[in-house]
Amino acid sequence: MARRALTLRSRALVERALAGWPEVSLSGAALRARLPITAVAITHAIVLSVILFESWVYVPRIPWNGAARPSPPPAPLPPAAITDSRVFRNVPFVYSSLPLRLPGNGSSTLFTSVVAGVGLYFPPLPDMGLTDRKRDPIRRVWPGQALEADIIGRVLPEYPSGTRNRAAVSVFVEYLIRTDGSVRVLRTSGPLLFANAARSALEQWEYRPVRFENGIIEVVSRVEVRFDGELANPAP
Predict the structure, then answer these.
(1) In angstroms, what CA-CA distances link 92 with 4, 88, 109, 120?
(2) Is the Cβ–Cβ distance between 225 and 157 less than 8 Å?
(3) Are 221 and 141 in contact (CB under 8 A)?
(4) Do 126 and 193 fall into the same domain?
(5) Which of 26, 62, 181, 197 could connect to 207 by a Cys-Cys bridge, CB 3.0–4.6 Å?
(6) Alpha-carbon distance 59 to 71, whole Å?
(7) Would residue 124 count as lying in a domain?
(8) pLDDT tens digit sequence for 87-129
């Protein structure tokens, strides 16, 4: 009787142990499934920690002093000078110290100041296109109005002080545009005081280097500078 009771008790313990085994096995499988995820999470945490450390040590920190003050408005551009359209009445063009600057608000109004009593005129050239290939660099005769797109900056002549001449005076200037775009006056024709004013202004002109036949050339051109004393110094 005692043996039977012991056998039944042992069988019950074994059955209870076998019943609990699937739970233990399942928990072990779940644990093994979670190990790669845990390893990836730890690796990411280490990488992020290294990046944050490097950023803190090597990247300069921007000092924070509150809201930045707005930048002051830009200074107004100086007015562009233009020649007096009254000097050459039958010529539809006036010339300027380029480039003409437009105001920033999109208006079409130009900020200009007129050089009173002074005009420029590029006359037709009978030898236009004449090319001297014996020179190095090549030198070519070309009209000034055809070179307007190449102008970088131009100083307009001013009516010379120290004269009471109220009549219109013309000065004819032949000038050379060098390969670097600078200008040298070759010769002038006209009263010395006015010729010097024209020479001083023209030798401050600057062009982009002129290209011809895949090379940079020198260009000879001519301009008439007219000074009108009546327009420059109107009668009171």
Answers:
(1) 133, 8, 19, 11
(2) yes
(3) yes
(4) yes
(5) 181
(6) 26
(7) yes
(8) 998 888 889 987 665 545 444 446 678 999 999 999 999 999 9
